[in-house]
Design a protein that fits this description.
single chain; about 140 residues; mainly alpha; 6 helices; about 50% helix
């Protein structure tokens, strides 16, 4: 990475590197100039989108543990080291890999998403931004 150049996820205000799909998230930037990943207006909106996706994982697919979440978020078939990603998120968040998570419990979801952001970008998440995303998510 060039000196003083932010990681892609932070440049896009998309700290979990959410790939472009046909899903329309609140808070998307007017210009979507990254060919692969969404851009959000602020980091708070990017974090909110992550919370929305994790809620969808729980309700639509029954994916409720870190092991299941990361297995879908960063699968090995996409050239990810999913096992290391899981271990890092557990270590950073203080949560267990097979602990069932409630997508409406900020005490577990905020540290989870902050830890995922750290793995995705290589830099600690700004907790005020993660909490702003949570506030936007819970309305």
């Amino acid at each position: 990475m060039e000196k003083n150049r932010k990681p892609r996820g932070l440049r896009n205000c998309n700290p979990l590197n959410i790939r472009k799909t046909n899903q329309l998230f609140q808070g998307l930037a007017d210009e979507q100039d990254d060919p692969d990943f969404f851009r959000f207006r602020t980091m708070g909106w990017g974090y909110r989108a992550a919370f929305v996706i994790l809620r969808t994982y729980a309700h639509k697919y029954g994916i409720k543990t870190i092991r299941e979440i990361i297995g879908r978020w960063a699968p090995p078939e996409d050239h990810n080291d999913t096992g290391i990603y899981i271990r890092m998120v557990c270590c950073l968040s203080g949560l267990e890999a097979d602990q069932v998570l409630n997508p409406y419990d900020g005490k577990v979801m905020i540290p989870l998403v902050a830890a995922m952001s750290r793995v995705e970008n290589g830099l600690p998440a700004v907790m005020a931004e993660v909490k702003e995303g949570w506030r936007l998510y819970i309305g």
